[in-house]
Each structure stands twice: as structure tokens, then as C-alpha cells.
Amino acid sequence: MSRMTTPTLARFPSEILLIIASYLHVPGLNALLQTCQRFHWLFDALLYQLGRKCISVPGAGTPLIWAVQKQRTSVLKRLLKGDEWPSDKCNGTTALHEAVLCDNLEALKILLDAGADPRVKDAGKESALAEAAGNKKEDAVRLLLNRHMDLQPWTEFESWWERALTRAVVDSNESICRLLLEETESAHRSTTNSNRSEIVNGILHFVAGWYGDCGIIRLLCAYGADPSRSSAGSRTLLHPTAHNGHVDAVKLALEYGVDPTVRNNDGLTALHLAAGDGHVDVIGVLIDAGVPVDIPGERGLTPLLFAALGRQDAAARRLLDAGADACARNESGFNALDLTIPMSPPPALIDLLLKAGTDASPPPEEIRMTPLHWAARTGQFQIIRLLCDAGVEVDRADQRGRTALHLAVREGHTDSVEVLLQAGADAFALDERGRTPLVVATKAENKTMVDLLLRPPWVYEAGGSKEIDAEVEDSKNE
């Protein structure tokens, strides 16, 4: 019989049967079924006789799934009696999955005894075991675990077990994690081809470390996970815990003796990761543990430079308070201001770095875009004001002869142009092609920008165009 196309089903099982009857067009069957609504035993019998012939009933799933969900054990047993295991997958789930999710342990036992394959996956590519582990169904985990190991050797079961353990770790379910580890230990030891230790180690570093549950971390370490090294390289437990700001887990990793100066595969220490994500408390723990505040990372990045890249003003303040070098530069010669201003940082971070002594200009021999160029290009007028107040060379040219004013005009950032003009920027400075900011504005047909650039210098020297305009407007009102 093909899948039924009835768009909507009524809520009660008796009405499901009536729809089936109308679909079959059997004379007198409707009346019989209406009578059956009053008799529970006859309803079960008819569901057995009719339901097994349908692949699925829209809105109810297969008869097996319906029986599991409604906890109709008698129907379930009749559906399974004396025949081969029926196809019960419908709408991406199976009766076995539904038995787990409905916490119907009796149905789960019946299905397994009838030959249900626990290796079948649902639409989310999850086995019933993984669903049980991720939904705190400890008794179901135990049943499915035993059935899995009856069906296949440990080496074939490892991938199923790994997924279930991962789900339990993500859910921070220590009791199910312990069950999965304890119940499979003997099976693992019976083979020489097991990858169990690598699996546990990977879950420690890439799952447990990410979520930072100290109980789970202790449990995995007790079963062979190494907090000092992951199977994927030089990553330690400190890297994911620091990256995600898990202070207690960071302290636990240090108690296990993990070296806090180890670089991960990206060349970064735990202090770099904590700084880049603004985890001030973790920064304090690592510095107290003896990590040098200016420990170099990949390409000469210090934690302060990494905090600047992450636009983390609180982390930068904590590092500077601990003695970080505000003038540090990476291997390419960029300091914290060079790295953070293109990322549109909060003005508070720029103010902090300037007051700490970070140089706002590259060395004289270097011809490139300065922090002021980047701020002008990206329209960060508040930061332009901070840089100008700090005394940067406002008309310094980049590698193409452009000043910050050229870039602000080209990008149409009116507020930035006003701040630069207030700081004394030359509206007639020439770039490598002999163009002034005024020429750039004229070619762009930006009349507002042209008017700004043609205002006499005394307007800006008196405190800025906005203030002058306000004074003129007030005088008109008088």
C-alpha cells in the first residue's frame, strides 16, 4: 500500500482508523470501526490488522512509533509478533529512537528483543544510544550499550561509543559519562586495535575543555586522557579552557601540571587566547602562575598585541597593569595601535594605549599607512581626535603619498574630515599622482566635502565648523 496523502488527521487513534477505512473504500467498514471505538481490545486488533499494511499514517508516524509514543504495549507486541522486523522509519525517526525519547523503557526492551538494530540512525544522523546519552536516559544507555556490544566487536563499536560519550560530555552528564567509560573498559582491553585512549584524549581537549566542567575533566583524566597534550598536536587543556574563560578549569589544568607557556598549533599560549577574548580573570590566574606577561607568540605577537587584535580594552588594561610593554611590536613592526585601529576598536582602548605610551606613528624610516590613515579610511572620527590630541603628524604620507585627509575625503567621511581640518590637516597636500584632497572631492562630485575643504583655516582654528555654524545660527536668532 502506498503512503497515504490525507493532509490532516484527527487527534485520536480511533479517528485514524476511520480515515484508513475511508481510504480503503470497504463497504460497511466505517460503521464497524465506529463501534470499535467503544471496545479497547477490538481497537488494538484492528490496528494490528490494518496498521501493518501502511508504511505510515500522516501525523502519527508508523504504527510502531504510535504504539511506543502512546505506551500501548499490547499493540506493540502484536505488531512484532511472529514476523520479521518491520520497516518503522518515518519522518526521520524510528520506534527505537521514540522509545528512548519517550522514556518508554519497556518498549525499548521489547523492540530490542524483537531484533531492532540499535545502529540505525535518525534524520539527524544520531543513533538511539547517542540520543539516550544526550537526553539523560541512563537506563536506556545501559540497555543499548549491551546490545551494541553483543552485535559488534569493540573496534567497530568505537565510533558509536565516541559519539555517545561526546553527547554526554556536552550535556555535562557525569553519571552517563562514567557509565559509558566503565561499562566498556573490559571490552576495550580485549583488543589490541583500540583507539579508545585517543578518543578520550580528543574529547577532553576538544569538548570537555571547551565546556569547562571540572567533574567531567577529572573523570576523563582518570580514564587516561592527558591534559598536557592532545592527539592533534601541541594543544593542552589550558588552551580551550582559557579561550572560553573557564577560570576553575584553568586552575584545575594548572593543578595537573600543564605547562602554561606551551604554544598550540597556531603558535599561541593560553595567555594569548585569554587576552584575545577578554577573559580578565583567566589572565590574572595565568600571570599569577608565572606566565611572562610579554611571552611571545606566533610572528612575535605578545598577549597585549593579541588583546589589541581582539579589541579587548579590559584585557589590555589588565596586561598593562601587570607590566606589559605598551611599545611592543610584532615581527612585521606593527604595534598595538597598528593592529587594532583597522578593526574599529572602542575609543577607550585607543585612549588606554596612548596614555600607556604606545607610539601612534611608525618609525621614521618606515613609509606605510599609519594608525591615523586607518582611522581616517574607516571613518573613526573619535579615534582620529584622540590620535591628533596625542600629537601625531597629521600630514604624514603613506607609500602612495596620501595623507589621512586624502583617505577620509575619498571615503566620504565628513566627520573625520572636519576633525582632521581642525587638527590642521593640509587640504592642498599632494599625493603621488599630484592630487589634493580638494581634487579628490571635486572628482567625486561631493559638494558637501568641497565646501568643507574650501572653508578658511580660521574657521577650524576657532574650534571647529560645527561650533562656528552654531554661533552664526545663534546670531541670526538674536
UniProtKB/TrEMBL annotation:
Keyword set includes ATP-binding: no
Which keywords are on file for this protein? ANK repeat, Repeat
Asked if the Swiss-Prot or TrEMBL record annotates the protein with the keyword Transferase, the reply is no
**What CDD domains does the database record attribute to this sequence?**
F-box_SF
Which InterPro entries does its entry note? Ankyrin_rpt, Ankyrin_rpt-contain_sf, F-box-like_dom_sf
Query: Repeat ANK: residue ranges?
Result: 91-123, 233-265, 266-298, 299-331, 367-399, 400-432
What's this protein's name? Ankyrin repeat-containing domain protein
Q: Which organism is it from?
A: Aspergillus keveii
